[in-house]
């Protein structure tokens, strides 16, 4: 199997030439840059036509060669080795002096580097840096298609507004944050064009590991793409505005733009929220003026979650902008009826057919084409750039002021977070510090003992020994540090009937809890410590006595089969499980429905692992007729019988979260899902961190702490119906269960089994009621997975 995670994450990022060092190009003004239509034979954004990543990247190289307004840089390679591009667009004079402007940005981002006499000069000379990213979700394909059109317009237009944009801004256009996925989608779309399956989603995840979750990786930086782009934005260029272009479902509003819905995260500076609204209303106004219907504001998407790409800038004192246009069927038009619209609601909009202040001109239904999506996105991009240009001075001054304010003491917050030198899991500590450094957070290491430290909650002062890492809040990324380290307290939002209002995504991400690392909020330092700034992740690993990458934690080889279901868009949990095994160099074999149905599993595998997936999906897969026949059907009865025989003959089945329901039903286990019949008003945990109590005597809890933080996202608790064959390895804590986030109905979980082992025949079944490898972020519960695998080998 590919071991991509282990070879990419733990090796140093390649040394790339900074865009500023590129020698200015000599471009003949007699050569007009080629239009996308002249290269592709059609204008990207046209219905039923699609360009792939090779075509897109080739076009940008042609534009770079032909235009003195464009400079293309490869900022790294993708998970599967494709070039990841950033295109700098500005007036020629700015591109010739790009390093000068990068240094201006660096100083504005860190006022400690600015002499008092030069601040005004920097503000006067600086440009508004605007990063625009396309199609991080590859099935939301139109933005990447028209990235070439957007670049060509800026490279060739001669009107006064474009001249002003080029003069006052530096645009960093990222044609796709997931080129691997662009090729997956383009290949599938071309294959199914003019068939009954035209416009269906690919039957695989469109990022090798993360699928849609590649936009949930901006706290931990597990993926190559996240790390490269974070370095570009938060270590090199420090943009004032970041615009992330998305698509949403087909039957809702035609486009959502800021301001966003509630709640907002309390760590986002109020000025950032105001600027988000300012840009969003400009977008909405320009879309309305251009005649587009169905544009909404203050709806659906909030600014609570930290781990998405469009919210990350807010914690770097930059303005994070999102637009979500209604989708077609990839690049194929669709018909949307008034009846379909009438059945759709979203947070902030009760009817898609009625006018409201935040939705003043509804779309009545009809044909919805990629051309409409492309047109709306082009207007929205232009609005953002116009705003960035006209208010250049304001954006730079506000950016500088926010960075200055972040350096000032705040008595309501800790002075620093300390990661004590002695940690249970050095690998998790190294991963946490690498994630911080990768997004530009300053980390220091004590070079001598520090006495008299006041830790929040301690009555006596303590000593921090040499090797302890300190993350100070008095740095430009104060908001970022606080958002990552504090416990989240999501507001208890209910609808008129008292039911929990569903958040946009998760409610908790406290980084040290998820990773099982001890972090201490320091309230006071009695003296100035002797310390050194940590340069990079490689230094951290070296000082912790770790090699270049994690080693396989299993003492004996395990014949591991990882179930891979074939469903629309693939299964993200399966991808994240592969990420875990590749990161730790644990060999495995992906096995599909046909492999399981074929039987004779025990001769090939010791363990079969079922990632989190609904029982019905595992059993039935894609419905007949919805995809080509080779992509339909699940395990069926023959697959279920193969699993029963596998366990009876001595094999081990491990099931994560939702897949536990399938295992319980199919294998006839003496446990039940105790949460199955509870309504959201009774039990609701939409992505929170909870505390588990472990049975230290059980082999699966070997070398684990007595209590561990785990992730709960609509997860399970078990009720044992035959104690003679069931061992409880972990229970939800009997009190103080919620650690971070939002949990309704804690009493329904308290004290109930969360991880169990069932003896059946010669084999065993291990049920995790929670996702122990959630989004590759829960390093604190990885050890339970490793022990479960080791348990399967006599």
What does this protein look like?
The structure is a single chain. With 794 residues, the protein is of the alpha/beta class. It has 24 helices and 31 strands. The strands form 6 sheets. Strands 20, 21, 22, 23, 25, 26, 28, 29, 30 and 31 form a 10-stranded mixed sheet that branches. Strands 1-2-4-3-5-10-6-8 form an 8-stranded mixed sheet, sandwiched between helices. The protein has a 7-stranded antiparallel sheet with strand order 16-15-18-13-17-14-19. α3 runs parallel beside α7 (142-156), α7 (142-156) packs across α13 and α11 packs across α13. The protein is globular. The chain starts with a helix and ends with a helix.
SSE map:
Elements (H helix, E strand, L loop, with lengths): L3 H6 L26 H5 L12 H14 L3 E8 L5 E7 L2 H5 L1 H12 L9 H7 L2 E7 L7 H15 L3 H9 E6 L4 H14 L31 H14 L3 E8 L6 E2 L4 E4 L5 H20 L5 E2 L5 E2 L15 E8 L7 E3 L1 H5 L23 E3 L1 H21 L1 H15 L9 E4 L6 H13 L5 E3 L3 E6 L6 E3 L4 E4 L5 H8 L25 H5 L4 E5 L6 E3 L3 H7 L16 E4 L8 H12 L5 E3 L1 H5 L9 E4 L4 H6 L15 H13 L3 E5 L2 H9 L3 E3 L12 E9 L12 E7 L4 E3 L5 E7 L5 E3 L12 E8 L2 E6 L13 H10 L3
Helix pairs in contact: 3-7, 5-6, 7-13, 8-13, 11-13, 15-18
């Amino acid at each position: 199997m590919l071991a991509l995670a282990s070879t990419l994450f733990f090796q140093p990022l390649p040394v790339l030439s900074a865009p500023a060092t590129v020698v200015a190009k000599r471009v003949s003004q007699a050569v007009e840059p080629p239009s996308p239509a002249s290269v592709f034979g059609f204008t990207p954004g046209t219905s039923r036509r699609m360009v792939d990543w090779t075509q897109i990247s080739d076009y940008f190289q042609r534009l770079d060669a032909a235009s003195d307004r464009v400079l293309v840089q490869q900022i790294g390679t993708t998970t599967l080795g494709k070039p990841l591009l950033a295109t700098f667009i500005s007036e020629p004079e700015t591109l010739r002096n790009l390093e000068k402007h990068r240094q201006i940005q660096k100083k504005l981002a860190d006022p400690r580097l600015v002499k008092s006499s030069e601040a005004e000069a920097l503000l006067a000379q600086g440009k508004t840096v605007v990063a625009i990213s396309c199609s991080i979700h590859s099935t939301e394909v139109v933005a990447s298609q028209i990235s070439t059109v957007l670049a060509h317009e800026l490279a060739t237009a001669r009107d006064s507004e474009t001249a002003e944009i080029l003069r006052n801004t530096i645009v960093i256009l990222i044609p796709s944050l997931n080129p691997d996925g662009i090729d997956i989608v383009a290949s599938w779309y071309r294959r199914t064009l003019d068939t009954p399956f035209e416009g269906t989603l690919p039957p695989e995840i469109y990022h090798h590991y993360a699928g849609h979750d590649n936009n949930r990786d901006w706290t931990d930086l597990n993926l190559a793409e996240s790390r490269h782009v974070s370095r570009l934005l938060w270590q090199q260029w420090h943009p004032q505005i970041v615009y992330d272009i998305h698509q949403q479902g087909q039957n809702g509003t035609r486009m959502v733009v800021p301001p966003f819905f509630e709640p907002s995260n309390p760590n986002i500076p109020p000025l950032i929220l105001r600027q988000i609204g300012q840009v969003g209303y400009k977008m909405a106004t320009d879309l309305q003026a251009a005649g587009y219907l169905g544009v909404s504001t203050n709806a659906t998407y909030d600014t609570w979650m930290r781990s998405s790409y469009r919210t990350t800038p807010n914690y770097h004192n930059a303005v994070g902008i999102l637009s979500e246009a209604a989708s077609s069927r990839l690049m194929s038009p669709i018909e949307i009826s008034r009846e379909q619209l009438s059945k759709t609601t979203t947070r902030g909009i009760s009817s898609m057919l009625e006018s409201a202040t935040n939705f003043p001109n509804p779309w009545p239904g009809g044909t919805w084409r990629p051309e409409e999506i492309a047109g709306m996105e082009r207007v929205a991009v232009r609005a953002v750039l116009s705003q960035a240009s006209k208010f250049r001075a304001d954006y730079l001054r506000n950016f500088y002021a926010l960075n200055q304010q972040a350096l000032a003491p705040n008595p309501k917050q800790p002075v620093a977070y300390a990661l004590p030198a002695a940690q249970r899991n050095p690998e998790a500590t190294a991963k946490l510090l690498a994630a911080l450094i990768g997004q530009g957070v300053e980390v220091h290491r004590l070079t001598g003992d520090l006495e008299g430290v006041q830790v929040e909650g301690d009555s006596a002062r303590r000593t921090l020994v040499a090797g302890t890492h300190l993350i100070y809040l008095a740095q430009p990324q104060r908001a970022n540090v606080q958002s990552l380290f504090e416990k989240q307290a999501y507001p208890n939002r209910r609808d008129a009937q008292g039911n929990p209002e569903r958040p946009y995504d998760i409610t908790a991400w406290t980084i040290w809890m998820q990773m099982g690392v001890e972090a201490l909020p320091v309230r006071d330092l009695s003296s100035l410590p002797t310390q050194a700034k940590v340069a990079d992740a490689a230094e951290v690993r070296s000082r912790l006595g770790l090699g270049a990458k994690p080693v396989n934690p299993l003492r004996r080889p395990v014949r591991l089969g990882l179930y891979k279901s074939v469903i629309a868009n693939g299964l993200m949990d399966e991808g994240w499980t592969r990420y875990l095994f590749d990161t730790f160099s644990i060999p495995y074999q992906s096995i599909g429905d046909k492999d399981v149905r074929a039987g004779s599993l025990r001769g090939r595998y010791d363990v079969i692992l079922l990632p989190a997936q609904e029982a019905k999906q595992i059993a039935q897969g894609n419905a007949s007729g919805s995809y080509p026949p080779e992509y339909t059907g699940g395990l069926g009865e023959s697959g279920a019988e193969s699993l029963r025989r596998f366990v009876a003959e001595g094999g081990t089945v491990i099931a994560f979260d939702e897949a536990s329901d399938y295992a319980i039903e199919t294998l006839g286990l003496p446990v039940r899902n105790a949460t199955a019949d509870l309504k959201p008003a009774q039990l609701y945990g939409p992505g929170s961190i909870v505390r588990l109590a472990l049975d230290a005597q059980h082999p699966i809890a070997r070398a684990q702490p007595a209590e561990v933080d785990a992730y709960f996202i609509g997860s399970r608790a078990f009720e044992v119906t035959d104690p003679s064959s069931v061992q409880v390895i972990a229970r939800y804590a009997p009190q103080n269960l919620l650690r971070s986030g939002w949990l309704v109905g804690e009493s329904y979980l308290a004290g109930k089994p969360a991880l169990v082992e069932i003896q059946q025949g010669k084999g065993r079944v291990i049920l995790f009621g929670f996702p122990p490898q959630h989004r590759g972020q829960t390093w604190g519960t990885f050890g339970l997975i490793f022990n479960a695998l080791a348990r399967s080998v006599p």
